[in-house]
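Sanity check

After download, print the first record. It should look like this:
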Amino acid sequence: MREVAAYKVKHRLPVEDLEREKKVLAEARKTAQEADLVPQSVEPFISALMEAGKTIQYRYLADWPPHANPAVTYRDLAGIRQRINELDRQLLTTLSQRLLSGAFTYSERVLLAEMTTSPNLSEAEKDHLLDTLRVIQRAG
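Expected structure tokens:
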């Protein structure tokens, strides 16, 4: 998200892009179906990921001084988005495989919480993101 925020600063783009979010959700539903997940069941999780991403971007922007030129690699936004799409696909496929053995246990949830690290997300925001995993369902 740091690269996304830096790109948006450089090109004077807003953090919020509702049309892009609609496309991401549509792609996530398609990916979910390919991964044998109920497409609508991934929407809360993907929406929470997008909200977390925007929160991280806003916090980077707040930390950078006015007219900052953040020292990060400026890949083009299409390349960054392609990488995010690949990660989303891997994540949904992995979740589908994991759900073959049943719902997440409390200890797995705790482990995921420990692994979810971002200096720009609060514990409550991380908890919300992880809570949305509970609604993801396998198809059939």
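If your output differs, re-run the checksum step. Summary of this record's structure: Helices lie at 2-10, 18-34, 43-63, 77-99, 106-115, 123-131.
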